[in-house]
Amino acid sequence: MLPLASSGSKVTPRHHMAGYSNGYPRGSTFDISPHRFQPRSSTPAQRSRRTQSFVRLAIVAAVLFLIVLLSWSGRGRTSFLSIFSLGLLSSDPSNFELETMRYYDLSNVQGTARGWDREERILLCVPLRDAETHLPMFFSHLRNFTYPHHLIDVAFLVSDSKDNTLDVLVQNMEAIQGSDNTSMHFGEISIIEKDFGQTVNQDVESRHGFAAQASRRKLMARARNWLLSAALRPYHSWVYWRDVDVETAPFTILEDLMRHNKDIIVPNVWRPLPEWLGGEQPYDLNSWQESEPALALADSLDEDAVIVEGYAEYATWRPHLAYLRDPYGDPDMEMELDGVGGVSILAKAKVFRYGANFPAFSFEKHAETEGFGKMAKRMQFSVIGLPHYTIWHAYEPSVEDIKHMEQMEREKLAQEQAEKEKAEKVMKLKESFSDATGQWEKDKSELQKITLQEKKKEAAADAEAAVAKNNAGSKAAGDKTEEKAAARNDDKELGKT
Amino acid sequence: MARPMGSVRLKKTNPVTLAVGAALCIFIIYFLIGSSAPDFSASRKATAASHPLSPPTSPFRKPTGGGKPKPPPVARYNLNNVTITPNPLENRENILLLTPMARFYPEYWDNLLRLSYPHELITLGFILPRTKEGNAATTELQKRITKTQKYGPEKDRFKSIIILREDFEPPLTSQDEAERHKMANQKIRRAAMARSRNSLLFSTLGPSTSWVLWLDADVVETPPDIIQDLARHDKPIIVPNCFQRFWNDEKKEMDERPYDFNNWQDSPTALDLAKEMGPDDILLEGYSEMATFRALMAYMHKEDGLLHEEVPLDGVGGAALLVKADVHRDGAMFPPFAFYHLIETEGFAKMAKRLGWQPIGLPNYKVAYPLALTI
């Protein structure tokens, strides 16, 4: 029907497809006439397409060549391989990116009174030498710190140690960092070894002898400076110096000292003593206020001389923090200081960044921590001590103490020996001679017995006489036998005594 | 207009076109990845720290996202093994190059890139003030650093770079040379400078540095071998002679003149002057009001002299200064207060001497400065 109808019409197109009968004439694109011969020669469009594909092929070849080239050169290999593996197969441990640049604004690490709230990092510095015996005690303190552990970076300097300090240190620290309790983990941990060739022995006598002080203090100062310069980072707000041989200290000591918001702050340091020495004693005499006699003394000394506190050779008449302690005083009371001791110092990191350190030379006639106090004062930092906030240093008996204790022990033994001998003597005496007092008693009781018997006989005779007199019957006779029995009993008792 | 013969298009697609597409995809992916930083060599990666909490003198692994962060490892450093020898190159000793910077000179950076000492052994440390100028200098500096560290050839890239910003207000905003050198301003200015230097030094020194090279931000020309040349002398503190290039109007040509007057040998006059001073007063060099008659290294230079001639010094300047790290570790710092009436670098020389380290100067070894615009 359809072709007939169309053939009858004059306006409809001649070649018209059912799907595209929109009435518009087509372009020449698909104007194919089956009635005309068309040779299979390439049209201009086909030709250009062919050349295009050749160009593309050339590009592909070039790109492939480039890739192969880059993949063979060492630098490109890893990243090239990671495209195909999508980074999943890269088990290569060297496949990580490096960060070479660090940026820090030091005004963000000034240190405030509430550092634990503001994520302020503390560098805990511990100089060590032959300290193996004190380490277990120290690590218990370390674990107990209430300041967030991840904000504490710990740095140790182990110098000239002949014992096992280093190994014990590493084991303990690794145990802490590897523990399951993540709140135990500390921040950066540096264990630094450096030998200064110290000749001074570490026993109490050589450490505290007057003659050794100046050179010993200078060496200690060097050790402290080496530790500090190797461990201080631009992200530290505070630096806490702590000796390893502190026996008792509050767990909150970091917060307690920080709360005062001072540039440098130290607690009072005492040590427990045996009863015969008075029970307790001020330990750290390096925290003091400057005095006129001391300044005069300093002026009179040689440039390289070092005044050390607590020795009769240098009478300085300085007020010491240690002696001002009142066990019932306000622990927050502050006192201005000029020299500080090194057992426990909390300082703002900027104090050290600005250059204050532990002079290993005679700085205004002082060295190490005392010189540090003096230097900080010159740089207008606040140096504060807390007279009634006390921590306790471990008691190590000095050679004299040990002698004294040995003497005491000997005396005690001698006394015990004497007592024992005395007791033995008494025993011997008892054994070799009979006891005269006992004999006397015996004789006395014998005599008493005799007199008693005689008395009873007399009484019995009296009674018999009375019975006879009164013509007593059989009842009376019964009483008489009873009385006799009683008398016999009395005899027995007397015999016993 | 609807597209005709949609299904036919696929049939017609040439396998060549598909290949081209695939190749292009690879090409694009490859260059997307390849356009990020070229990788560091394995030897550099081996020396990198595994945690961001680490000495800043070494690069660290970028923390990869995901997973619980591991606690930092127990790191051991043996400072007995850190060598400081006359031949740092052979012993692969680490150099810490420190620069307090107020302005960024592109020539300064170009000069750094020319240093012949292996860059993978050099750590750079900068400290900039918190001023408008300081901000601008930081931006410029960071641009150049990114260019070098990310896109530069690996041999140009430095081991690590630390940028610090000061935490105190600068005492003087003017960098004008005349104002800067006024005597009254000197003590405050140099005390601040000393604090800058100390802050930079003591927070970056770390446990592996062998030598510290102090180089001022305006030193735009040094011999490329300066580190090796200075280290060769094996001295605790060593200072080359600093000169400034300028346009000489009389001679109508570029000329040089002595610049750093802080390198000197003490004189009895200066010592007598010091005796009469208050404890907080400082002696300054190069001011006619205060004639010290010290022997200045700046004037000891001889054109025909031996390049490596040494003279002992009592005061040093900081323009270019090579120091053994041990000297700083022992506690020799730049006093920001009057230390024996000396301050900053001069005080440093004195403190080093008190610790038993003797500074040495090289009058004939020259380091040049930039053009001075005003005198």
UniProtKB/TrEMBL annotation, chain A:
Family statement: Belongs to the ANP1/MMN9/VAN1 family.
Organismal lineage: Eukaryota, Fungi, Dikarya, Ascomycota, Pezizomycotina
MF (Gene Ontology): alpha-1,6-mannosyltransferase activity
Keyword Hydrolase: no
Region (Disordered) location: 458-497
Ranges of Low complexity composition bias in the record: 462-472
One CC-aspect GO term: mannan polymerase complex
Keyword Transmembrane helix: yes
Coiled coil, from the record: none
Source organism: Thermothielavioides terrestris (strain ATCC 38088 / NRRL 8126)
Identification of the protein by name: Glycosyltransferase family 62 protein
Keywords assigned by UniProt, alphabetized: Golgi apparatus, Membrane, Signal-anchor, Transferase, Transmembrane, Transmembrane helix
Topology term for the membrane: Single-pass type II membrane protein
Subcellular location: Golgi apparatus membrane
Domain of life: Eukaryota
A Gene Ontology biological process term: cell wall mannoprotein biosynthetic process
TM spans (from-to): 54-72
Biased composition (Basic and acidic residues): 477-497
From TrEMBL, chain B:
Record GO biological process: cell wall mannoprotein biosynthetic process; protein N-linked glycosylation
Record GO terms (molecular function): alpha-1,6-mannosyltransferase activity
Keywords associated with the record: Golgi apparatus, Membrane, Signal-anchor, Transferase, Transmembrane, Transmembrane helix
Region (Disordered): 48-77
Membrane topology: Single-pass type II membrane protein
GO CC terms: mannan polymerase complex
Compartment list: Golgi apparatus membrane
Chain segments annotated as transmembrane: 12-33
Leader sequence segment: none
Family stated for the protein in its record: Belongs to the ANP1/MMN9/VAN1 family.
Protein name: Glycosyltransferase family 62 protein
